[in-house]
């Protein structure tokens, strides 16, 4: 049954899942806004580095942060990371990512289990045969005790090979065999759905389960989730499992996620970008937010509308102004979210000449239209359609930022802020 969210977009109804830590409750599914999450790439055993990156991701707007938990040292570090976050007033829920030895880590280091709000379990990496069933059951029992949510996260690169082999054999014997790709898709979906059913048979409530089926190809991901959404009412986590680096990763993630979100499929997303050497991990948070904001599903940070430039804009002034303005908005957004709710939906325009500039600027909450080549060397500023003055001189960027700050405080700030 589809539901309609605040933006008017039809969404597949899924069972809502609350992921909780202290005063923070993040609800996934049930028609709630799509949740943005991310994952650290520090060695979790390095508690200080992992704390700093988790805090940075949370400050950027990641509503859930996942950590690799692969060794006893990493599991013990989770406790320290959680303590440091709480001491800093950062109550973002943490997700533990478990492969191969999660059953041991969760049972042998129970304090780690208690510090995590959600466990990611990959059914392809819990063991083989009856051992897999035992290990899976152990993890579910821990989740029942701690109240943690569970994501059953199936990956194309680590699919249960016994299940895939069985389905391939059945397909070969069928009178109307499917393509190998279709059988692989069925194996991925069945692994997720059957694992969720197994978790429920062990006593984990449906409102504590999230499912995902991740692959690296755009069209295959779309086909997978269309099938998965028809086969389950569980909340769904979206994302390409390896999106890639730079523009390739951004474009591929956007192409896949936008199609599914437009169809009402997906309750939480991660954009799994390969970061450039030395680049901030927060890029994946920003891209996820901008996908949702561009689709008018959520608002996170005021975004700049700017023109591409043409022969009329011989100066790079408007390009630098657009960049500096967006950087300013992103830097101020965390505080504005606290003191000026609603400002995240503010529209800002930086235009490069007088052809479309004044019109676009008037349509924004705040806009500036710079002169182009040979035009009058003044830049009119418009506030909600009305001309509010002109900018001149070498410090136009600072002047414009001051106007934006004043506008936010006069129009969005809470009383007493």
TrEMBL record:
Alphabetized UniProt keyword annotations: 4Fe-4S, Iron, Iron-sulfur, Isoprene biosynthesis, Metal-binding, Oxidoreductase
Domain IspG C-terminal: 304-406
Catalytic function, reaction form: (2E)-4-hydroxy-3-methylbut-2-enyl diphosphate + oxidized [flavodoxin] + H2O + 2 H(+) = 2-C-methyl-D-erythritol 2,4-cyclic diphosphate + reduced [flavodoxin]
Enzyme class, broadest EC rank: oxidoreductase
Pathway: Isoprenoid biosynthesis; isopentenyl diphosphate biosynthesis via DXP pathway; isopentenyl diphosphate from 1-deoxy-D-xylulose 5-phosphate: step 5/6
Listed GO biological process terms: isopentenyl diphosphate biosynthetic process, methylerythritol 4-phosphate pathway; terpenoid biosynthetic process
InterPro entries the record matches: Dihydropteroate_synth-like_sf (IPR011005), IspG_bac (IPR016425), IspG_bac-typ (IPR004588), IspG_C (IPR058579), IspG_TIM (IPR058578), NO2/SO3_Rdtase_4Fe4S_sf (IPR045854)
Domain of life according to the entry: Bacteria
EC numbers on record: 1.17.7.3
A GO molecular function held by the record: 4-hydroxy-3-methylbut-2-en-1-yl diphosphate synthase activity (ferredoxin)
Cofactor: [4Fe-4S] cluster
Xref: SUPFAM superfamilies: Nitrite and sulphite reductase 4Fe-4S domain-like
Record domain IspG TIM-barrel: where: 25-288
Record note on cofactor: Binds 1 [4Fe-4S] cluster.
Binding site for [4Fe-4S] cluster: 307, 310, 353, 360
Classification via Gene3D superfamilies: Dihydropteroate synthase-like, Sulfite Reductase Hemoprotein, domain 1
Membership in a protein family: Belongs to the IspG family.
Task of the protein: Converts 2C-methyl-D-erythritol 2,4-cyclodiphosphate (ME-2,4cPP) into 1-hydroxy-2-methyl-2-(E)-butenyl 4-diphosphate.
Protein's recorded name: 4-hydroxy-3-methylbut-2-en-1-yl diphosphate synthase (flavodoxin)
Organism placement in taxonomy: Bacteria, Pseudomonadati, Pseudomonadota, Betaproteobacteria, Burkholderiales
């Amino acid at each position: 049954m589809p539901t309609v969210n605040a933006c008017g977009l039809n969404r597949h109804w899924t069972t809502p899942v609350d992921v909780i830590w202290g005063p923070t409750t993040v609800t996934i599914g049930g028609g709630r806004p799509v949740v943005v999450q991310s994952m650290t790439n520090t060695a979790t055993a390095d508690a200080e580095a992992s704390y700093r990156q988790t805090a940075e991701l949370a400050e950027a707007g990641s509503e859930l942060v996942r950590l690799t938990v692969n060794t006893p040292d990493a599991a013990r570090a989770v406790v320290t990371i959680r303590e440091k976050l709480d001491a800093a007033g950062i109550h973002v829920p943490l997700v533990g990512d478990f492969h191969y030895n999660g059953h041991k880590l969760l049972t042998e280091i129970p304090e780690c289990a208690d510090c995590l709000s959600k466990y990611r379990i990959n059914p392809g990496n819990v063991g083989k045969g009856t051992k897999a069933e035992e290990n899976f059951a152990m993890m579910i029992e821990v989740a029942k005790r701690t109240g943690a949510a569970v994501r059953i996260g199936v990956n194309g690169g680590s699919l249960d090979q016994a299940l895939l082999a069985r389905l391939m054999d059945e397909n070969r014997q069928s009178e109307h065999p499917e393509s190998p790709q279709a059988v692989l898709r069925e194996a991925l979906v069945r692994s997720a759905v059957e694992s969720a059913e197994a978790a429920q048979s062990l006593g984990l409530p449906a409102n504590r389960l999230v499912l995902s089926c991740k692959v690296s190809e755009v069209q295959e991901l779309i086909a997978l989730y269309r099938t998965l959404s028809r086969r389950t009412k569980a909340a769904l986590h979206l994302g390409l499992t390896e999106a890639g680096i730079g523009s390739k990763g951004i474009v591929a993630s956007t192409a896949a996620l936008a199609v599914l979100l437009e169809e009402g499929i997906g309750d939480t997303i991660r954009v799994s970008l390969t970061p450039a050497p030395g680049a901030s991990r927060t890029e994946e948070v920003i891209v996820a937010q901008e996908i949702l904001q561009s689709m008018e599903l959520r608002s996170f940070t005021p975004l700049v509308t700017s023109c591409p430039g043409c022969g009329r804009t011989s100066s790079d002034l408007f390009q630098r102004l657009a960049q500096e303005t967006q950087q300013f908005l992103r830097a101020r957004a965390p505080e504005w979210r606290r003191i000026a709710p609603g400002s995240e939906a503010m529209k800002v325009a930086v235009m490069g000449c007088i052809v479309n500039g004044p019109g676009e600027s008037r349509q924004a909450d705040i806009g500036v239209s710079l002169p182009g080549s040979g035009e009058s060397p003044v830049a009119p500023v418009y506030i909600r359609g009305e001309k509010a003055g002109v900018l001149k001189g070498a410090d136009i960027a600072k002047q414009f930022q001051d106007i934006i700050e004043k506008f936010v405080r006069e129009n969005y700030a809470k009383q007493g802020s």
